[in-house]
Write a structure and sequence with these properties.
single chain; alpha/beta; five-stranded antiparallel β-sheet; 7 helices; globular
Length: 234
């Protein structure tokens, strides 16, 4: 996940980055940080961030305005605000901020906000093309049970049915980059939430009854990520 840190105070920005990296290390989630000290540069950068940790009191463009700009171009982005005052708290609700922290804030509180932001990113939708006629369909990522590469196309197995998409596995890895989607085998991406049986280093049984093998090379990293996700969501 891509995490924006926009703060003109370099020392605090570095501190926030350290917190994000510590959380990523603790939970085994890949969190890539991007630090900007100027909100104008953020608005022009074109990077599709997943989460943004924004200082409210900035010159040229304040944090609330930057949040409005970001949510317009990246509807699924989740915002966390930091400020020395509480007067912009009400305004933060206009951009559906996940958290608004008034200094001083603790590591534990920051981790709670980051955890909630990650959960909300996971609930977004994905749009893809049908293999045969190119028509588009949009579904919630939460409804995807697993993805399988099959004869140069991808089979998308969901709660509502099975679709065949005209996209490569690379497309799905880029769009299903949230922490609940793992790769037990190079031919599969599975949604952890639909696992009903798990035999370590051997196989997984999904909620629709399908059994998916775990490759030898993926066994250890899959188990580590699976257990880390289970601990995160408790």
């Amino acid at each position: 996940m891509k995490v924006l840190i926009c703060n003109p105070d370099q020392k605090e920005a570095a501190h926030i980055e350290a917190l994000v990296k510590a959380f990523g290390k603790k939970t085994l989630i890949n969190l890539h940080t991007y630090i900007y000290d100027n909100p104008v540069d953020v608005a022009a950068c074109g990077i599709r961030f997943d989460i943004a940790v924004i200082e409210v009191g900035m010159e040229e463009i304040n944090g609330i305005t930057l949040g409005k700009i970001l949510t317009k171009s990246i509807p699924y982005i989740k915002l966390i605000y930091i400020s020395s005052q509480a007067k912009s708290l009400d305004d933060s609700f206009d951009v559906q901020a996940v958290r608004y922290y008034k200094r001083p804030y603790t590591e534990a509180r920051f981790f709670t906000g980051l955890k909630e932001a990650i959960k909300r990113v996971d609930s977004e939708t994905v749009c893809f093309d049908f293999k045969d006629d190119g028509a588009k369909i949009r579904i919630s990522k939460d409804e995807i049970i697993y993805i399988e590469i099959e004869n140069r196309k991808t089979k998308v197995v969901t709660k509502k049915g099975t679709y065949y998409a005209g996209h490569s596995m690379t497309f799905w890895k880029e769009h299903l980059h949230s922490v609940k989607f793992l790769v037990p085998h190079n031919s599969f991406i599975i949604n952890i939430d639909y696992i009903v049986k798990y035999k370590r280093n051997q196989f997984i049984v999904m909620s629709n009854g399908d059994t998916i093998s775990i490759s030898r090379a993926k066994g250890v990293p899959f188990n580590d990520r699976y257990e880390a996700y289970q601990a995160l969501m408790r």
